[in-house]
């Protein structure tokens, strides 16, 4: 059986990381963008991370430019934006595609495991969130309208 631990991704700093490095943690995987109406969710994500990381939560951010060209910058610009504007301290990865033929393999897996509204696989917009249990299984998918604080009870059940 495949889990998120079977995938690798590149950080904003250009380092290849196996998601197996996060084995045993609850993960919240989010596709992000710096120039989106949902961008202020970074604040809620960081708050969740600061509060629940000591208990075993890790948030992984994956910038994508696929929705309205709302993540046009390069890795340095994205990292600086997240740090300066929202104090993001959780791991951020290099910009990827989350839909289509060039979608990152992790996102192909996530969207296959947990479909969206009406059974659609494609990510509809920025800040779609996938909740992963400590065994690397995808347990829930939340759309852009779901704020990070609304997911807190589900995260706490997995911790």
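Sequence proposed for the structure above (159 residues):
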């Amino acid at each position: 059986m495949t889990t998120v631990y079977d995938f690798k991704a590149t950080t904003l700093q250009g380092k290849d990381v196996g998601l197996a490095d996060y084995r045993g943690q609850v993960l919240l995987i989010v596709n992000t963008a710096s120039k989106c109406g949902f961008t202020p969710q970074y604040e809620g994500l960081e708050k969740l991370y600061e509060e629940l990381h000591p208990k075993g939560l890790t948030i992984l951010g994956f910038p994508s430019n696929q929705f309205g060209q709302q993540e046009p910058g390069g890795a340095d610009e994205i990292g600086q934006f997240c740090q300066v504007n929202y104090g993001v301290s959780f791991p951020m990865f290099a910009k990827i595609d989350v839909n289509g033929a060039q979608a990152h393999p992790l996102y192909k897996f996530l969207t296959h495991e947990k479909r969206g509204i009406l059974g659609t696989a494609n990510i509809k917009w920025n800040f779609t969130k996938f909740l992963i249990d400590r065994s690397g299984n995808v347990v829930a998918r939340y759309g852009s309208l779901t704020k990070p604080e609304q997911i807190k009870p589900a995260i706490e059940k997995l911790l």
